[in-house]
Specification:
The protein has 118 residues and is an alpha+beta fold. The chain has helices at residues 81-90, 92-112; strands spanning 7-11, 16-18, 26-32, 35-39, 42-47, 52-53, 67-70, 74-80. It is globular and about 40 Å long. InterPro entries: cNMP-bd_dom (IPR000595), cNMP-bd_dom_sf (IPR018490), K/Na_HCN_channel (IPR051413), RmlC-like_jellyroll (IPR014710).
């Protein structure tokens, strides 16, 4: 199961969960605490319990689009791209559903970034 692949990481206020531009092949799930999203030096939002961070990284080699900095003591669960691949190999049908959703989200992301595909 996917939950068996998750490992826990803790951050203290001021720690960076991820920095804009980093190529990290991990996705983060915020279980406890609070963090802020920062894009090009400007705080753009607050992340709370239940939020996910950097989902693109486990699907494609895409740099982090924003910085996430802990503003509280945070408990985060981490899923690596390699672990996701191992699970998906065991559950191929479910992987097809994930791929379908990913295509839609990637298309939306590319449109948001104004990337034209030929």
């Amino acid at each position: 199961m996917l939950s068996a692949c998750l490992h826990q990481v803790q951050f203290v206020p001021g720690d960076y969960v991820i920095q804009q531009g980093d190529l990290v092949q991990e996705m983060y799930f915020l279980h406890r605490g609070e963090a802020v999203e920062v894009e090009t030096g400007v705080e753009i939002g607050v992340i709370r319990h239940g939020s996910h961070i950097n989902w693109q990284a486990i699907l494609i080699d895409w740099p982090a689009s924003r910085t996430v900095r802990a503003t509280d003591y945070c408990e985060v669960y981490v899923l690596t791209a390699a672990d996701l691949v191992r699970v998906c190999e065991k559950f191929r049908h479910e992987m097809e559903l994930v791929c379908s959703t990913t295509r839609t989200r990637l298309r939306d992301l590319l449109e948001e970034e104004h990337v034209q595909l030929d």
